[in-house]
Amino acid sequence: MQQDCIFCRIAAGETPCFMLYEDEFTAAFMDINPASPGHALAIPKRHFPDLYQLPADLLAATAATAQKVAVAVSAALEPAGLNLVQANGPGAAQSVLHFHLHILPRGDRDGMRLNWGLQPGDMSQIEQIYKCVRARLD
Ligand code: 5GP
Ligand code: ZN
Fold first, then answer.
1. What is the pLDDT of residues 105-120, one digit of tens each?
2. Are the CB atoms for 82 and 104 separated by under 8 Å?
3. Which end of the chain is more exposed for a tag (fewer CB within 10 A), N or C?
């Protein structure tokens, strides 16, 4: 547990929240600055700052919790759609450095700045980047 981490304190029951779901390894609760009605967060209880450092089994456990909550949110609110969103680092606007998945219900044409549309890419640039990333997956 990291004392200065708000999500560690929530996981430890030291800071109140609207807790939706808890198991041994994960928790899910309502976001206090909702981007849309029903915005919730799923976290591993142990502190890992981001996706890069999170063990794969805890990623799987947190994703399964997010799925449970998404199904419940979808049944309760019947949103037009729902996104799972996850930020890593300041460039991705991560503000809490404890890994979390956003469960984001969407409204029809809600104007949320998240959708990038479909613009055809430059195939040679895609291939060049592909080779660069692929080389790190061997
Ligand atoms: P990020 O910006 O890191 O992707 O997302 C962090 C999220 O945590 C934000 O949506 C923010 O509203 C939420 N958050 C920050 N502090 C608290 C808190 O004390 N309680 C709850 N429930 N959510 C929080
Ligand atoms: Zn933490």
1. 999 999 998 888 889 9
2. yes
3. C
Q: How far apart are the CA of 78 and the centre of ligand 2, in A?
A: 31
Q: What is the pLDDT of residues 68-84, one digit of tens each?
A: 999 999 999 999 999 99
Ligand 1 atom closest to the Cα of residue 30 is 22
Other beta carbons less than 10 A from residue 24's beta carbon = 6
- The token duo for 37 is 């009605």
Q: What is the DSSP string of 48-74?
A: --STTTS-HHHHHHHHHHHHHHHHHHH
State what percent of residues in the chain have pLDDT above 90.
93
Could you say which residues of the chain have pLDDT below 70?
Answer: none
| Residue 6 to residue 9: CA distance in whole angstroms | 5
- Cβ atoms 64, 84 nearer than 8 A: no
